[in-house]
Amino acid sequence: MPDEDVATIRAELLAAYETIQQQQRSLEKIVLERLEPIAVVGTGLRFPGGNDTLDGFEEFLRAGGSGIGPLPRERWDVADQDVEGRIGTVAGGFLDRVDEFDAQFFNIPPKSAPYVDPQQRLLLETAWEALENANIDPTALRHGNGAVYVGASPLDFALGLGTLGADQLDGAMATGLGAYSLSGRLSYFLGWRGPSLTADTACASSLTALHLAVEGLRRHESDIALCGAVNALHDPRSFIILSKGRMLSPDGRCKSFDDAADGYARAEGCGVLVLKRLSDAWQDGDTVLAIVRGTAIGQDGESAGLTAPNGVAQEAVMRTALANSRLEPADIQYVEAHGTGTPLGDPIEMGSIHGVFGGSRSHDDRLTVGSLKSNIGHMEPAAGVGAVIKVILQLRAGVFYPSLIDAPSGRIPWHDYSVTVPTECRPWEAPVRRATVNGFGVTGAIGVAVLEEAPQPPAPEVPPRDLPRDAGHVFTLSAKSETALRRQIERYRRFVAEHPDLDLADLCHTANTGRAHFRHRVAGEVRTHAELTALLDREAANPGVRPRESFRRVAFLFTGSGSQHVGMGEVLYARYPGFRARVDECDALFRPHLGRSITDLMFGRAPDAADVIAETRFAHAALFTLEYALASLWRSWRVEPAVLIGHSVGEVVAATVAGVFSLADGVAFLATRARLIESVAGAGGMAAVAAPVDEVAPLLERWPDLAVAAVNAPDQCVVSGGADSLAAVVEVLRERGAVVKPLRVSSAFHSPLVAGISDELREFLEGVEFHEPELTIISNETGAPASADEITTPAYWVRHVNDTVRFAAGVAAIAERGRHVMLEVGPAGVLTALARQCVPEGDHRWLASLSPRDADARTIRETLAHLYVAGVDIAWAAVHEGRQRQRVALPTYAFDRRRYGLPRRAADLDQVGHPLLGQAVPTEAPAREYASRISAGRPAYLADHRVGGKAFLPAAAHVEVLLALADELHGDAGRPIEDVRFHESVFLTDRPTRLRTRATPGADGRWRVDVHSRHDGEAGERRCASAVLGAPDAPALTDTGRELLRRLDDLGEPDQVLGADEVRAAYARAGLDYGPEFSRARAVRRHGADLAVCELSGEGLSTAEHLPPPLMDGVTHGLAAFVDDGESYVATGIARVRVFKKPRARLLRSVLRITRPERGPAFTLDAVLLEDGTPVLELSGMAFVRLSRAPSAPVAEPAAGVAADIGAANGNGGNGNRNGEGNGAGQAPPAPVADVIRRTLADLLSMDEADGVDGDTTFLELGVDSLVVVDLKDRLQSRLGLTLPLSAVLERPTVDQLATFLDHQLAGDPVGSRTGGDDDRG
């Protein structure tokens, strides 16, 4: 065969072989995508029994714990007529405080939170905890393809909404209920754009969601997925439905595989898994808890009934799950069964398990079967994820946990089945531990998952470089609110004390890289557990005195000549690969110009380093190398400068960092510049003078070879020039008393001596390619921001080497741009020491990168901590680059939870009459008697009226009882109520309290009324109030009321104005903790010594009441402007109350007058409530007495121990500046305008404290939607007297930005207002 034919055949064979190889690789990829294991890298859980951590849940299961408890009385009254006897069980698995939630953490306004299904709230918090358990900072994943798969059957919340009246419905319900919102809101909060869906297949929902998540990850629809499920039980009617279906166990226990099985126990809970493809988890360094080998879902199809299981179908899905996992039944040692404890379902499931696994087992090698439901009940849609988490713990520990079983079920042929149910902990011994998890829905859905213990990760292909061990570490901790931060600190104090052997480097690495970072921060450089404990102790000892710093900008200050020293940067070179790479790059570029290695000089590797590094060309090259690498290091850590300023040669580095020069050109320019300066003939020198330049410059006119080289501070400048002339002027200066310090330099920089190098330097620069700067540079020439046209010319840089360095003016120019972190990029803190003298020091933060005395990089770590606390967002993964650290389990976020509940149900009113008066009960005629049952949450608004942390019945509630009684007796609530007396307070708990109201008629048509209370479990009643229902008369104001209206018409400017937050704060100081319902005062204006006008919100009030207690209570809140002696007061009675109409307006006004009699009560008040000028209520002679000391249980209602808190915001105009300073762009805006915005937002969003609205928190983070933006714009227009376009708010989405804009508007400066709160130069 000819050679050419052989060559052709060989080529064809090789091509065919390559094609086969490509096809093989493609097939392997397809198979891998279809079958790649999915890693569980994190979990979050809230399960019955107080289980909310993996470790705690493992201890609970290992001990055979039970999470079953009685029905939650605090959620509904089990003694109600409509509920009593209808629920066929007495217990279940319930969570603690399921109604509490940190709404603002999840950007949900408190106003909207009550209308968000508790299942959503549980899911949000648990999902966050799962991500923290995985040590994943979710902020880095925003706008990525993260996916959310949720299993849920939201019913209870919808049932609750069905009983609300039309006026109680809210637009927030559109996203507060429904299955779609569970996944949608979680994806929205995280900013994930991958698949997001909620599966509802009843009790198979969890495993259905897991199946979809696994398939989505394998198809690369997402790179990370949250798979969770949730169940919350807060409406008794869902229990009644299941009771009528005979599904519930009477004693509230799931007796899985037990002979006593008699139905299931309902349970609530939430579990979330963090999932990744196994290869990605290994690549990302995640801790793999277990892997999902495969899943399958299916359906019973036709069976004995819709709710009857189909064993054949169950077997088929189990076999499919095994096939999808490429496993055989013999590979499985454990099955976590559905096992609800029903007489029908358990035997069928055990039969299907035997059908699949029996052939591979024997009585000597039994399959272990268990069910979590025996411990905590059946979490319904969340049961599957709970089972998966239990199996993960068993896989990890190598232990089978006990199921709670008393006697094996007689319906299961145990002697025929090779299965066993553990009743105590047993070791799980297998070459590879594997398990399946079953989940079956009530209408036939089937889900099965196959789990396997976590495999060992492969060894890294390239071993990591051995970096020196850090002597210290940066510890960080943050929260979204000051309260949450305090709780975080306490959690970490306990954690550190409980884990004294935990590696500090791993702890800090995990805290830095595995947590999101919020605005309220604590940080420090720590070297030992004792130092970390001390840091946390210091922070814990100073609650409320830790100001949240927020510096939107960083300025880089590049040091000039004279600061260089041998060893500078060496500690960074050894520890930070990025810094080392930039130093090596500069070294390679400088070597042709210098003829030697600059790093040998910098790090003292050359024997003559100490002498040579003082020479100009080497000193400048060393400074350039260090500072360029330092700037690169800081920027790699996401410390991005808003502005750059360099001192002399430092400006060359700044220009290179800003991109004016390429690195190669910057190096060449600096080397040429230094060489030319060294070539200057003649002796020269420099001296620092502690005197203003205006006093020094005139003295230099006698010596033409002298000049001012630099103006470094208002009282410090540098003189440079000929040595003899310099000596002469130094003598003159010292004679005049100036302190003069000669500088050790090799050349007379910025003096007439260097003028001779200008032509040659210009010639070199003509060949340099200049670029427009990417960052703002402050010019040494002008002391102002350099324009692109100016700084990109040879002429500029020629002048730069000759002219005065105007550093002080440059620092002032930076200060005009707002508050900055001034970060020195150089070998020491030389420039920051000078810069502090140029501007008010407290306006900025001053930090150094290095210190000559620092041998282990402590300075840069301390600076990192300071930058973090100042509000700079650090790229912590880059900081820890190259270090092999273990991610460790740390405490999860300490949520700042508040209670949120739906408004009181309208249906309840229909069932029990008036919510406070109740229903008529039999009594002897002619008396009339009524009874009601109330509690801390019934009516719901009572939960918002607290003293000393305890809910109690306000005086206004007693008045409402009397009004309702008058309506019952006369069909008219408008009769006067007289001689109201308060005898004893009624404190409320979650247990019901019975109110009994008895009315006895008199001969004159008046009724004597007594109100008694009795708590559940108490033997006797207590008289808490009494009054007289007056005879009918004309519905008109009294003379006192008419006088109040007359004074209202004649009001001038107020003497004092209190905002909503100030009113709440005043009452809080008296121990009254008002929630949103009782925080209705929007503003209080005091006129003179006795009159106050109060704006009150009428939104969200019940229409079923005559004068809703939250509104009437607010009528008296004008007291906050008068009672300023720090004492506490109690209301003892009201002389007369008259209601003229029901309130309906969104905004009402009350006018209040206080009188201080010489004898008797401490003061009395008279008030009129108005709606659009029409009287609603007149209150006369409400008396208060001073408490001589604070009793442990007040005997009557505290009014307010208030001290009027008039802040600076009420003492300045809207456009005033603080401390006489200008308001440059980026500077904190004037307090008055910012406070108005904060108060307005707090009112609109029902936030407790306006101070909680940070200046740079975006409106989106506060939960402001487009409708609230419109309301915000309208209210600001009204309060500030401005006409605002909607775009004014939309384009400035923070308090600071909007306040700066409005400040310019109020000052009549439309040009300044156009930039909003930001300066586009930075």
TrEMBL record:
Domain Carrier: 1231-1306
Region (N-terminal hotdog fold): 914-1035
Ketosynthase family 3 (KS3) domain mapped to chain residues: 35-453
One Pfam family cited in the UniProt record for this chain: ketoacyl-synt
Superkingdom assignment: Bacteria
UniProt-recorded Gene Ontology molecular function terms: transferase activity
C-terminal hotdog fold: annotated span: 1053-1193
Keywords: Acyltransferase, Phosphopantetheine, Phosphoprotein, Transferase
Ranges for domain PKS/mFAS DH: 914-1193
PROSITE patterns linked: CARRIER, KS3_1, KS3_2, PKS_MFAS_DH
Active-site residues, record numbering mapped to chain: 945 (proton acceptor), 1113 (proton donor)
CDD domains found in the cross-reference section: PKS
PANTHER family named in the record: FATTY ACID SYNTHASE (PTHR43775), INACTIVE PHENOLPHTHIOCEROL SYNTHESIS POLYKETIDE SYNTHASE TYPE I PKS1-RELATED (PTHR43775:SF51)
UniProt-recorded name of the protein: Acyl transferase domain-containing protein/acyl carrier protein
